[in-house]
Specification:
It is a single chain. This protein is of the alpha/beta class and about 190 residues long. It has one domain (about 1-190): Alpha-Beta Barrel (TIM Barrel). It is about 45% helix and about 15% strand. It has helices spanning about 1-5, 20-35, 50-55, 70-75, 90-95, 125-135, 150-155, 165, 170-190; strands at about 10-15, 40-45, 60, 80-85, 105, 135-140, 160. Strands 1-2-3-4-5-6-7 form a 7-stranded parallel β-sheet. Helix 3 (about 50-55) packs parallel to helix 4 (about 70-75). The two termini are about 30 Å apart. The mean pLDDT is about 95.
């Protein structure tokens, strides 16, 4: 993970849906240390109560987890709260009439991915919609790599959730740098 951060990763999320809390807490400790040493926020997935208990910088909740309101209540106002969205209706629900108390939403997965088994891809059109409609930062999920970011940047994306491109890499630092360069180049081509 330190290599990924050295390569340009600027936020880290621990996601393991199947482990009991005590094991997640044990796995979180070294991740939190590396993140803190590098001034990179550490986000825990799905478990606001555990995120608060271990002092994570924030929590990310999905559509089937605790509500963003409950997550915010558990982690406090200073913590980062993120929410997964996979469709227009989920984004509409988050938007309100009383908008969800989140700092960002994720949109995707753009394409089917092993990290979301059984979930169909949203396609790039949903990414463009989420970026256009959302008052929050939008993080794009699903199949992000240097070859895919150009189209996603054109759709308005500027923030990306990356799993396999980094975790399956022989050299995660190099892969992170390649991805950051691809994002920067795509944004520069658009002039934004």
């Amino acid at each position: 993970m330190a290599a990924c951060i050295e390569g340009g990763v600027d936020i880290v999320q621990l996601r393991d849906k199947d482990l009991p809390d005590d094991q997640v807490a044990r796995r979180s400790a070294p991740v939190q240390r590396v993140c803190a040493d590098n001034h990179v926020p550490f986000i825990l997935n799905d478990r606001p109560d555990l995120a608060a208990a271990i002092g994570a910088d924030g929590v990310h909740v999905g559509q089937d987890d605790l509500s963003p309101e409950e997550a915010r209540r558990l982690v406090g106002d200073a913590a980062i709260v993120g929410l997964s969205t996979h469709a227009s209706s989920e984004l509409t629900h988050a938007l309100g009439p009383d908008p969800a108390p989140v700092d960002y939403v994720s949109a995707g997965p753009v394409v089917p991915t092993p990290t979301k088994p059984g979930r169909e891809g949203t396609g790039v059109a949903y990414i463009a919609e989420a970026v256009q409609r959302s008052p929050w930062t939008v993080w794009v999920t699903g199949g992000v790599d240097p070859g895919s970011v150009g189209e996603l940047v054109t759709a308005g994306a500027r923030h990306f959730v990356v799993v396999r491109w980094l975790t399956e890499a022989d050299d995660p630092r190099s892969n992170a740098r390649l991805l950051c360069r691809a994002i920067d180049d795509a944004v520069a081509r658009l002039g934004s």
